[in-house]
Amino acid sequence: xxxxxxxxxxxxxxxxxxxxxxxxxxxxxxxxxxxxxxxxxxxxxxxxxxxxxxxxxxxxxxxxxxxxxxxxxxxxxxxxxxxxxxxxxxxxxxxxxxxxxxxxxxxxxxxxxxxxxxxxxxxxxxxxxxxxxxxxxxxxxxxxxxxxxxxxxxxxxxxxxxxxxxxxxxxxxxxxxxxxxxxxxxxxxxxxxxxxxxxxxxxxxxxxxxxxxxxxxxxxxxxxxxxxxxxxxxxxxxxxxxxxxxxxxxxxxxxxxxxxxxxxxxxxxxxxxxxxxxxxxxxxxxxxxxxxxxxxxxxxxxxxxxxxxxxxxxxxxxxxxxxxxxxxxxxxxxxxxxxxxxxxxxxxxxxxxxxxxxxxxxxxxxxxxxxxxxxxxxxxxxxxxxxxxxxxxxxxxxxxxxxxxxxxxxxxxxxxxxxxxxxxxxxxxxxxxxxxxxxxxxxxxxxxxxxxxxxxxxxxxxxxxxxxxxxxxxxxxxxxxxxxxxxxxxxxxxxxxxxxxxxxxxxxxxxxxxxxxxxxxxxxxxxxxxxxxxxxxxxxxxxxxxxxxxxxxxxxxxxxxxxxxxxxxxxxxxxxxxxxxxxxxxxxxxxxxxxxxxxxxxxxxxxxxxxxxxxxxxxxxxxxxxxxxxxxxxxxxxxxx
Length: 641
Description:
Helix content: 25-40%
CATH topology of the largest domain: Immunoglobulin-like
Low-confidence stretches: 3-23
Distance between the termini: 27 Å
Strand content: 25-35%
Shape: globular
CATH class of the largest domain: Mainly Beta
Number of strands: 32
Mean pLDDT: 94
């Protein structure tokens, strides 16, 4: 999952049918005999012909046995690291058997479980409901469809038998497309008749792991192939012009698989589909899957080079997850159905290392220029080095509490509380530190790439999963180079670390400085997301409409009693604009006069004076004379382009 997403809150654990009827509440399990088999699968038909209007209708026939039966709606969706199944988007639920309606009732404790009494002589029930695609609790965002494009996550489209192992429970999905729309998915198409597309029966876990994008305007690009293996970029846009991707940008994406194979030395997929929706209505998002990825970006993401500078790791991050996260997965994050809670403590490997690897691939591919990485790294380090929450909250709390922290990404004072995004950003610094330690100790003969070859094993397979523990990660690193890796991770992950890892910058031949020269990544980020960061100067971040989104503890703005939610109306008498604020900041450096802000909140206006006289302040990395430029070696292409 990409770091800028927001998700639902941590909910109650799921509970099984037997305990609900007996008054005893057991933990969810995967011990039940699955009634849906390969020869007798659950069938699912999603009528998405109305997706452009914001809803779809799901109809399934679920194999059953007479007597009490519980069917459940997916709660813990792999890749979201939280109980994020959008219950509020279910509507008009109906259950029947042989044409006769059956009464259903929701469990009193587990909101994701539904009970029904199956009559004698019935071997399947029909379950139908309307899915509100833009209902407000959509997984990964509030909008999943527009009049021209839609994202279909199968996990929000079906119910299934409670307490089964989804590796052994089979489902046969179909979809009815809007007229004239195309689609993309990693599922195997068996047939298409008109607007209806039928897919092969597969284990429930594989169907749930293979989203479908569809749209009126679409383009499919073959990025790479070798023998029977292919990688595709399937793009769907609100407007046809947003599919006119410059050849230079596409050529960079065609380097993804060669660079990933060089990085990992293996492949654990057959046909990979990078699904990409291009829309200003559907939120910015990235979700990993084993043979595909669900990527959502603004309309001009593939036509405006600035988007590639700011977020060029969107697709490479999710692609890297096919190895790190899908093939290799934390043992306690790996469950046998969607109701069993996931334990997220090892996300500092799953997401933290992958943030580094996704960025690394974006630079090695040429989506971003390798020479630009030092400036990008300077921004990451400055973010973590100026976060007050580090004084009290260790990284392990962010990963263990990830289901909660994902929810709070947009809450007030995120720098004090910290957010899920921190273990992505700090994870990159952590694993760059690991990379440079390996390189320094082996005189650049080995690197993190060496570890990844051991980690992902040099072989070619389909989508399978192999779990790991913290102990195995440390063991594999010791195979690469002997070092006290346990103490290293203990210090940086499991204990309070008031500063992010620092050794990697000097070890790579650079040092961090702050000056008035704009950092291109900061500038581009502000332009594309319409924000204004004064985190390193006054100590606040400004979002759309001039509203403060956070204030840094003990900064000049904090001392002047500024707070999130305040809207800046004027600065030193001028109507607020980023340009006006910058001008006033430069003047204050010379006049030594406090900056006067007029702010509004809840219908009241306030005049606030902020004493900051340092001028513009941007982070940069500069070379240490006489040292080896390790960053250039790390980010340089490792495959033949």
